[in-house]
Automatic annotation (TrEMBL), chain A:
This is ABC transporter ATP-binding protein. The lineage of its organism: Bacteria, Bacillati, Bacillota, Bacilli, Bacillales. Pfam families: ABC_tran. InterPro entries: AAA+_ATPase, ABC_transporter-like_ATP-bd, ABC_transporter_ATP-binding, P-loop_NTPase. Residues 5-232 form the ABC transporter domain.
Automatic annotation (TrEMBL), chain B:
This is ABC transporter permease. The keyword Glycoprotein does not apply. The lineage of its organism: Bacteria, Bacillati, Bacillota, Bacilli, Bacillales. Keywords: Membrane, Transmembrane, Transmembrane helix. Residues 52-228 form the ABC-2 type transporter transmembrane domain. It comes from Sporosarcina highlanderae. It is found in: Membrane. The chain crosses the membrane at residues 21-39, 51-71, 92-115, 121-146, 153-174, 207-229. InterPro entries: ABC2_TM.
């Protein structure tokens, strides 16, 4: 499959502080790629380099097969959308007026405004002034703005960080639908649950370096200890090992009607991250 | 450099709505008009006084308002949104400057009208006023790009207001302090010289030097503004 992002030996140094170093990865066209890491790990720096807002100190970064320096060209800018942690909306204007500006800038019909507002659950609020919105609603308007021109590639920096679970789920559904239409999504987050439910592949970023990169499934399998936990009728929880010994024990519990629940002991992405990096996500 | 009228117009419309709701900045445009009305009623008729008001309009409307508009876009991170859109440097700077240009022209007109300034050659003065406004708008854009917030912008722009509004008073002491001779090349002083010559009956050919000097300031300011804007596109 065609690569839409190609990054090789990428590094960015601010003064004497290294933000990222030796970062290598490829993002395939049509996938949702998660860039996971705690605050200050270099996620936003990477997005800024990939969108032409920062110049890398060394290494190469290509988007749509061209160096990121080409992203200054307006034809390339039409092909990607960005949602950053800073809203960049006009507070004195209504939601509608904010989106109208971007419809005109991207040459998109105004009918698209209702469509994207529906996707972020804000259709009824379009005449509200942005300055009167809650943080979560503002975040959803920013997302609507990033979606308005149906970009081929969407960069999302912590897209649901300010949202409640209901709205996060709504946004996840919207992103999946967009991805099914062919939009590639590059997502940074420190929410491992979000990464597990959305991403086709994830990269763990820690101290500016990629520590692991694979599909969530493969990561979980490779870090799984293959045991299962059985909850018994006497409320006891028993961890059974893999193999015939565990199978025999499970057979005995089932044969005597003692089993209430059975759970596999796969690690979550969050637990794998902590195991690999020794750091908690925050 | 390609320019898209649709994008320029989109930014202009957005700026108009945003500016009309921003009383802190929009109220400034009435100061020269009110002063013009006072001066007109007082019967002041010297060219220096008329151009004190016009230069004040340039400093307070073209430079100050533009500086605040740009600084607010930077402060609220909305300028980055425009920079990441398909709008070119010309679209953004054109769109951001058009509202200020229109307001400057309207305020200059009403201020001059209320101050009862009747130029001997309206075509030359109009051309000189339009040309001068480009310089002040570019200067305001530059200062706005340097500022981190509207508050900082309103402080940074103060020397500009003082030098270009009241700078013409310096010419009174130029003979005493020859080093100040350099001030006479400023666009505000050149505009007064041009208007004085026009009032004495000069035609277009007689004020080419003043036009050339003002044009030089405009070109330098626009080039610097584009360079600074492009630097601000990356962190």
């Amino acid at each position: 499959m065609e690569n839409i992002i190609e990054v090789s030996s990428l590094a960015k140094v601010f003064g004497n502080q290294t933000a990222i170093e030796s970062v290598d990865f490829r993002v395939k066209k049509g996938e949702i790629f998660g860039f996971l890491g705690p605050s200050g790990s270099g996620k936003t720096t990477t997005i800024k380099i990939l969108t032409g807002q920062l110049t890398p100190t060394s290494g190469t970064a290509k988007v749509f097969g061209e160096s990121v320096s080409q992203l200054k060209n307006s034809e390339y800018r039409k092909r990607f959308g960005v949602l950053t942690d800073n809203s960049g909306l006009y507070g004195r204007l209504s939601i509608y007026d904010n989106l109208k500006l971007y419809c005109d800038l991207y040459d998109v019909p105004l009918s698209k405004i209702d469509e994207v507002l529906d996707a972020v659950n804000l259709k009824q609020e379009k005449s509200k002034k942005v300055s009167t919105l809650s943080k979560g609603m503002t975040q959803r308007v920013t997302l609507a703005r990033a979606l308005i021109h149906e970009p081929e590639l969407l960069f999302l920096d912590e897209p649901t960080s300010a949202l409640d679970p209901t709205n996060s789920l709504h946004i996840h559904d919207g992103l999946r639908a967009l991805n099914e239409k062919g939009t590639t999504i590059f997502l940074t987050t420190h929410d491992m649950q979000e990464a597990e439910t959305l991403c086709d592949r994830v990269a763990f970023l820690n101290n500016g370096k990629i520590q692991l990169l694979d599909t969530p499934d493969k990561l979980r399998k490779s870090y799984s200890d293959s045991t299962i936990t059985v909850e018994l009728t006497n409320e006891e929880k028993v961890i059974l090992p893999a193999g015939s010994e565990g199978a025999n024990q499970l057979f005995n519990y089932m044969n005597t009607n003692q089993v209430v629940t059975i759970h596999s002991n796969e690690l979550t992405l969050g637990e794998i991250f902590v195991q690999v990096t020794g750091r908690k996500l925050a | 450099m390609m320019i898209s009228w649709k994008r320029v117009n989109a930014i202009l419309q957005k700026d108009f709505k945003d500016f009309s709701r921003n009383l802190a900045v929009s109220s400034v445009i009435f100061v020269p008009i009110i002063l013009g009305a006072f001066y007109g009623r007082m019967g002041v008729e010297s060219i220096e006084t008329h151009f004190l008001l016009i230069n004040m309009t340039f400093a307070m409307v073209a430079a100050f308002v533009q500086c605040c508009l740009i600084a607010e876009e930077k402060e609220k991170n909305t300028l980055r949104g425009l920079m990441l859109s398909p709008a070119s440097t010309a679209d953004i700077l054109g769109g951001k400057s058009l509202l200020t240009f229109i307001m400057t022209m309207v305020v200059v007109f009403f201020t001059a009208f209320l101050a009862e300034y009747k130029p001997a050659n309206i075509a030359i003065i109009t051309l000189a006023v339009i040309l001068s406004s480009f310089f002040y708008i570019a200067l305001g854009t530059m200062l706005g790009l340097y500022s981190k917030s509207v508050l900082e912008a309103s402080v940074i722009v103060m020397p500009v207001i003082i030098v270009f509004s009241l700078g013409s008073f310096i010419t009174l002491v130029v003979e005493k302090y020859p080093i100040l001779q350099v001030v006479t090349y400023l666009p505000n002083i050149q505009l007064i010289d041009l208007a004085t010559k026009v009032e004495a009956g000069a035609g277009f050919g007689d004020v080419l030097v003043e036009f050339a000097i003002i044009l030089g300031w405009v070109i330098a300011a626009v080039i610097l503004t584009v360079i600074i804007f492009r630097k601000r596109m990356v962190d």
